[in-house]
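Q: Convert this sequence to C-alpha cells.
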Amino acid sequence: MVESREASHAQPRPLRIAFLLYRGNPHSGGQGVYTKYLTRELVRLGHSVEVFSGPPYPELDEAVRLTKVPSLDLYREPDPFRVPRLREFQTLADILEFVLMCTGAFPEPRSFGWRVASILGPRLDEFDLIHDNQSLSWSVLRMQSRGMPVVASIHHPITVDRRLGLQSARTLKETVGLVRFYGFLRMQCAVARRLRRIITVSHVSCADICSEMAVDRSNISVVPIGVDTDTFRPLPLIERRKGLIVTTASADVPLKGLRYLVEAVRLIKGRGDIEVELKIIGARRSDSEVQRIVERYGLEEEVTFLGTLEQFEMVEHYARASVAVVPSLYEGFSLPTIEAMACGTPLVVTDGGALPEVVGVGGDCALVARAGDAEDLAAKISEVLLDPQAALSRAANGLQRVFDRYSWRAAAIDTVAVYEEVIDSHRSRVKAEDRLDDDVDDITGLR
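A:
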C-alpha cells in the first residue's frame, strides 16, 4: 500500500494527466464521484487534468477540463436499450456499438476505447500520463504500447458482479443474457494483466483482482478513496426518527443485497416491539426482484424507493435515520459506508468484501452482519434501534475514522506517488532500451 503522505507532502513536479472515464454519471455509482473529487484534488496539488468522458458526463471542478467523447448513449434514462434514429449513426463505432447491444452485450467500455483513441491518440505528446478509470479497453493498452505511461483504476473486479448475478438468475434466458452482457470482461481481464500499474481502493479488492483477474500483485497499488466532509457531515439540528433505516444503492442488482435488507425489515416488524421503516436512496428497476419481495411480504408502507437524490438530500436522510445499513454481498470499498460515517449516522454493514476493512475491525465504528443472512442483519439492526446511545457512540468513532483516513486530498497525494513511480519506471525502461540499441549498433557497426 502507498502510505498516506498528506501531513508531510512536498510540492510535486506538475504533471499533465489525461483521465479516461467511459461513463461519468455523477448521481449513480462511484465512478463519477471518484472522478469529480480526485481530479479536483489533483488540480489543487498543482497538476493539470483533462477528463475524457463518455455520457453521462461527470460534474467536475471548474479547473478541470472536460473533453466529451460522444456516443449513442444506448443505456440512458428513461429509455435504456433504445433504437437510435438513422441520422445518429455517424461512424463505424456507432454501428458496431448498436450491433453489440442488439446481441445482448454491454459495448460501452470497448466502444469508448475506440472513440477516445481517435480523440486522444493524436494528442498523446500533450500528456505525461494516462489514468484510465476502469474502462480497460484494448485502446488503452495500445496507447501504453506506443510508449505512454498508463495507470488504471479497478475499484473491484466486475467478475464478482457477474458471478453473483448468475447465482441469482431464475431462468435460462436470464443466465444467457448475463453471460452476453458481461462479455466485455474477457477484454478487461486481458488488458488488466498487461497494464504496468493498477490502482485499487482496498486490500480485499487487491486480493480479489489478483485471484479473479490473474493480475500480478506487484503491479497493484492500494489507495483508499475519500469523502467530501464539507457535504457529508452531521446535521445536529435534525432529529433522528425512531426506527428509520436508510440505505443507498447505486443499482438495484443482487450485488447490493437489498433483498436481504427487506427480509430483515420483515423480521424486525414481526417482533412487534420495534417500529421500522426503510428508505432506499436509489432507483428501482422495472423488473425489480426487491419490489416483488416487498409486495410478497406486504411491506409497501414500510419500504420506499426514493430514487436519485441530490447530495444535500442524502445528507438530510442520513441525519434523520436511526441507522444506515450497507447490506451488500460484496464491495471493493463502498462510498455509501464512509458517507454515512461522515454524517455521524449509526451504521450496520455486512462482511461482504472490503466492508469490515473500511469500518475497521472490532466493532468500534459499526456493527457487522454476515452477508446474505437476513436474520443476522435483522439482529444487528435491532441492536442499534434498541440501544441508540451505544449506537451513537460507535457513530462518533466512525466520524473520527473518516477524518483520520478518508480524505480526497490524501487519496490524491497517494495517487500522484503512483504516477511518479510509473513515470520514473517508464523513463528508466526507455533509457535501458536506448542503451541496448546503442550496444547493438556498436556490435553491428552501424555507428
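The longest helix spans residues 408-444.
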